[in-house]
Structures are given as structure tokens and as C-alpha cells.
Amino acid sequence: MGEVDEAIDFLRYYAFQMIKNKGYSESLYLHGSRVKVRLGFHGSPGRGERVSHLMKPYGVFGVIAPFNFPVSISTGMSSGAMITGNTIVFKPSSTGNMSMLTGVLLYHLFRDVGIPPGVFNYVSGPGSVVGDELVINSSVSGIVFTGSMEVGMSMIGKSYGLGQNKAFIVEMGGKNSTIVSDSAYLEGAAAGVVAAAFGFGGQKCSALSRVYVQNSVSERFMELLTQKAREIKVGNPMERDVYMGPLISGEAYERFKSAVELAARDGKIIWGGGTLKAGLNGYYVEPTIVKLSHGHELYRKELFLPFLLVDSYESFEDAIRMANDSQYGLTAGLYSRKKSEITMFKKTISAGVVYINRYSSATTGAIVGFHPFVGWKGSGTSGKGTGGRYYLLQFLREQSISESIP
Questions:
Q1: 28, 66, 172, 224: which has the fewest Cβ within 10 Å?
Q2: Has 261 been annotated as catalytic?
Q3: Is 254 annotated in the active site?
Q4: Looking at the domain 176-356, which fold is it?
């Protein structure tokens, strides 16, 4: 229900932006020069000119959607492209999941409300076939993609390697961090960390995967964190009291087992690490908390799992350094009641979406129109986020038209 709500928010917000900005077009009048100028002088118009500043669509956008949030993210990308005048070829995820069926439903919904034939085009298939064709096909003017950094950068390389100049709007992964200071309200911080790390099974790009806790409060925070993790019920997410459902695929399950093996070898599993029987088909695992030193390879890989790494720090400068020590820069959180720490965090954290003392969730829960969802560094290519005021401009290209007035 929350995902459908967000899809509606995208539709309303992007429509609002187009109306508010009058299609991102304007007309100006440039007065002619009163002084006679010689032929070839370009600094001033000879006569008055009517100048139009227009933002025009590129043409066809390939929309390549992820398996998670198959309604809201797909709707956001698709509506962003279409409301700015482009047509789209929509390809949902189709490897190890069934979100291509959600894609069919989305196609039918747009068709039934009156989107003209040929504007929203649906095609399913593996990324290695259908996705590659969208990337290299010269009739496709742009790609909007949400997924891993490896796939995103590969697509850009393939297209540019062919000498194409496609528009790329690429939102990639994250290895999101949160800092817990000795001045933090620890009960609230633990609640926010658990929600961000284990909501949706950690299978969202904004999910929290790294926590840095000040030494003096580390023991108490770990007690609270473990207690809240123990309370999580795993099973059929259609049941109201179930907080965490299954992993998306067998491949994700194998990735979980490998991460657990590495954590047990090089660190300490504080809670979780096992598999569960939920009485249903699927891959059910325990929410997992691991004490592991920063610098380990698990701190670099985006796991997309309910798998949380914890390390401690002495000085706040060390915490900032470790939080920024990642190729990604999507979301980040801080729990502190010290004004100096909050100020330093805001000035130095390298992430596009930042939350401070948010007890509902440390790094997740962006609201359309209020929290533009934008990735820095390896988490995005444009520096402009979905659900933000500059998002639609990426689907448009600027043109100025000057018409001399007789």
C-alpha cells in the first residue's frame, strides 16, 4: 500500500512541477539596437528579437526498472519520461523474480487511463538481451535506470563506446552508513537503525548496512540493537505482525550464506546468520548483525540483504572518515545531540540523502517532493534526484529560438 501511495505521489508531483514551471519554457523580448552597427558585428541585434527558451523531449527513453519497488520506482521513471513528452520502452526486472507481471499491470493501468498507443511500450526479457538492445539501439535517445553500479556503468560504457550520445539518468546502489554518537538517544537510534537495516529485508538501495558507534556507548547500543532485532518476526509479509519477508531469489540466498561465512571467519556474529522455515516456499533468513572492523571487504560490497555491519570509533572525525570511505554516496544517517557534531556532519558527509536523528528510520523513507532521492559518487550519475524539483529537466534538452521582428 505504501508503494502504491508513493507511485501516486510521483504522478501528482511531476504533474505539479510541469504546471508550475509552465513546461519549462519561456518567451523573452530582446530590444534592437538604436545605434547603427556595421555588418558582421555580433554583439547586438540589429532589430528587435522574440526569443523562445524551450525545453524539448529527447524522443524515446528506455526505462529499465529494478525488482524492488516494482510499482513506485517504475511509475516514477516512466511518468518522468512521458510527462516531459518522450515515449518509452519499459523493461521490468525479470531475473530471479516475477516483477515482469507487475510491469504488465502497470502497462494496463496507463493504457486504461488514456495514454495513447505507442507512448508506453512494454517488453520483458533478460538485461543481457533486452536491456543491451535498448542501450545500443540508435533509435533510443536516452536511458533511465535503477540498479547496481556495475550494470549502470556498463551500460554507459557500451553506449559511449559505440560513439552514441544518449542521455543517461542512472540511480545506482549504496553502502549506506549511520553514526551513533555518545550523546545520542540510544533507544531511538536503535529503533531507527533496525528499521533502516531490516525493513524490506534490506533489499532497497537506501537500506542501512554500516553503523559506527562511539566506544563509550557501544556496549549499551549493541544490547538495544540486538533486543530489537530479536523481536523481528520473519515470515509471510501478508500477515500484519510479520516485519520481514523472504529474500528475492536463490542468488540472493547464496550471497547471504557467503556473507555469513566471511563474517564468522573474520568478525563476530552478534545476532542472526541463520535460515528459517516459514512454512512457505522461498528463502527466509534471520536479520543479521555482525561486529567487524572497518576495512573488511564486506564494508565495500553492496549486499542487498538484511545484513548489518557494526564497528566502533573514538573521535567523531574518525566516524566521518569511515562513513565517507566508500565508492557509494546514496544515504547516510546521524544520531547525536551535539550541535558541533551535527554541523560537522552536514558539512562533510558525502551522500545525497541525509537524515539526522530520524528515529523512524536511519537512512530510508524518502518522501516525494521533500527528500529528493539522489546518489553521489558511485550511487548516481546526474546529481539530481527522483521526487525532486530538478528531476524532470533530465528528460529534456534546451533550445533557444530567436525570431527577428520586422
A1: 28
A2: no
A3: no
A4: Aldehyde Dehydrogenase; Chain A, domain 2 (3.40.309)
Confirm if 376 and 351 have CB atoms less than 8 A apart. Answer: yes
Which of 6, 187, 205, 403 does the annotation list as catalytic? 205
CB 374 within 8 A of CB 352: yes
- Among the options 6, 171, 286, 302, which is catalytic? 171
**Bridge partner residues of 288 (DSSP):** 307
Which SS3 state, helix, strand or coil, does residue 307 take? strand
Dist. CA 51–CA 403, nearest whole Å: 6
For 50-90, write each residue's pLDDT tens digit.
999 999 999 999 999 999 999 999 999 999 999 999 999 99
**Beta strands in 40-195, from DSSP E residues, in sequence order:** 49-57, 60-64, 87-91, 120-122, 142-146, 167-171, 176-180
For residues 364 and 355, give the distance between their C-alpha atoms in angstroms, rounded to a whole number.
9
CA dist 33 and 46 (Å) reads: 6
Kindly report, residue by residue over 269-284, the tens digit of the pLDDT: 999 999 998 888 999 9
The angle that helices 186-198 and 215-230 make with each other, rounded to 10 degrees, is 50
What residue segments make up the domains of the chain, in order of their start? Answer: 2-172+380-404, 176-356
Q: CA 344, 297, 374: angle at the middle one, nearest 5? A: 45
Question: How many Å apart are CA 226 and CA 194, to the nearest integer?
Answer: 9
Q: Find cell 544518449 and name the residue.
A: 166
In the predicted model, is pLDDT for residue 263 greater than 70? yes
The second-level CATH assignment, the architecture, of 2-172+380-404 is: 3-Layer(aba) Sandwich (3.40)
Average pLDDT, the chain: 94
Question: According to the model, what pLDDT value does residue 32 have?
Answer: 78
